[in-house]
Specification:
The protein has one domain: Jelly Rolls. Helices cover 19% and strands 36% of the residues. An eight-stranded antiparallel beta sheet has the order 1-4-13-6-7-8-9-15. It has a seven-stranded antiparallel beta sheet with strand order 2-3-14-5-10-11-12. The relative contact order is 0.20. It binds 2-acetamido-2-deoxy-beta-D-glucopyranose. The site of 2-acetamido-2-deoxy-beta-D-glucopyranose has 9 residues, from loops.
């Protein structure tokens, strides 16, 4: 009897945890609008799963209904399996696209030929200027399972995480360098899958194998908490907490150094060939 009770309790507890997990994971019907792709972006399983597909004609994508100024954003992604060269899956934040004061915080996943490793690229645009790429070789096969990719954005840091491991800490150095930090406008969250054949795989040398199309990337567990606007920041900074003041403690800094030492394949801050006049001021 006691063990039955215990079993029931465990079953109920599991259930509660699963439900809580789903609730935290949000619902794509409620959180996102399908933006591009004429039916190629599909919300499924009652809103828990989003699949994006890409073929020769078109890619696909969604954008969040809400806008955020600072916040924490998590997405679980299972990348395009098999031959994925030339495909680019994304999870990013963007101010209204293409203005001269455009801000953007990017995760981009560059596919590869079958069996070859994926590259994860991060980038930060502020006031229309990007060119701040870092690239890592994924240290696991991101096509076999869902993994969690997170962006924490607050007034002093933009932190990128893969399964809770920090992979980049982009800091606000505006006061000392004059390089603008994205902090003036709200952004929406986007997830897209598009054709990057012209540049993504070895600068366009490796072409997409369109006989394998459609390519499909799967997304779930979207969670976002952030301020809605600049008026909202003072209140939400006080109440919402953790991410607003988040930075890397010494343990997290050590993990970041480990990742960068073992997996980084490109860092714009080390690219003296690209910046012959001197590295960008925020790199120093
Ligand atoms: C694809 O794999 C090759 C060989 O391992 C590697 O050199 C290249 O950088 C990879 N490309 C991308 C886009 O990850």
């Amino acid at each position: 009897m006691a063990s039955n009770l215990k079993r029931t309790f465990v079953a109920v507890l599991c259930c509660v945890l699963v439900v809580a997990g789903v609730a935290r994971g949000g619902n794509f019907y409620q959180d996102m609008d399908v933006k591009d792709g004429g039916g190629r972006a599909k919300i499924q399983n009652g809103g828990n799963l989003l699949t994006l597909s890409l073929d020769r004609e078109s890619g696909s994508g969604v954008q969040s209904k809400k806008q955020y100024l600072f916040g924490r954003f998590d997405m679980q992604i299972k990348l395009v399996p098999g031959s994925s060269a030339g495909t680019v899956a994304t999870f990013y934040l963007s101010s209204p696209p293409q203005g001269p004061h455009h801000d953007e915080i990017d995760f981009e996943f560059l596919g590869n030929v079958s069996g070859q490793p994926y590259t994860v690229q991060t980038n930060v645009f502020s006031q229309g200027q990007g060119n701040r790429e870092q690239q890592l070789r994924m240290w696991f096969d991101p096509t076999l399972d869902f993994h969690t990719y997170s962006i924490v954005w607050n007034p002093t840091h933009i932190l990128f995480y893969v399964d809770g491991t920090p992979i980049r800490d982009y800091q606000n150095r505006e006061a000392t360098t004059g390089v603008p930090f994205p902090a003036r406008q709200a952004m929406r969250v986007y997830a897209t899958l598009w054709n990057g054949e012209a540049w993504a795989t070895e600068r366009g040398r490796v072409k997409t194998d369109w006989s394998r199309a459609p390519f499909v990337a799967s997304y779930m567990g979207f969670a976002a908490s952030g301020c809605a606007s600049s008026q909202d920041v003072p209140t939400c900074a006080r109440s919402d907490g953790a991410w607003m003041h988040q930075e890397l403690d010494t343990t997290a800094q050590a993990r970041l150094r480990w990742v960068q030492k073992n997996s980084m394949i490109y860092n714009y801050c080390a690219d003296t060939w690209r910046f012959p006049q001197g590295l960008p001021p925020e790199c120093k």
